[in-house]
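#lab-general

N.A. 3:47 PM
ok so I finally got the sequence cleaned up, no stray characters, all 120 residues accounted for. can someone with queue access submit it? mine expired

B.Y. 3:52 PM
send it over

N.A. 3:53 PM
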Amino acid sequence: QEQLVESGGGLVQPGGSLRLSCATSGFVLDYYVIAWFRQAPGKEREGVSDISCSDGDTHYQDSVKGRFTISRDRNTVYLQMNNLKPEDTGVYYCARAWGTLDSRHEYDVWGQGTQVTVSS
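B.Y. 4:20 PM
back already:
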């Protein structure tokens, strides 16, 4: 079964760090883009960062550049989040799309999400 499972969310103070994990199974990760999305209460889902697992290319939303780092180790994709801000609060999802950052299909498998709360 093709599956993505997120973990690593939690409550953290502003300025703190978290590392999210997206464990993949049931398919060959090399052929896919893995993206992290987030959705805050009352807001639309937005893309945060993505990685092309075939060539390692990465992309970040402007608001997280310099603070978040996406990486891959075998069948898991990580999102290291540093210097967290209250506006980073939301449910974080990972999703897969066939292809590369320049040419990808639609996102067809999603994880269940993990809650990140940044608050003092």
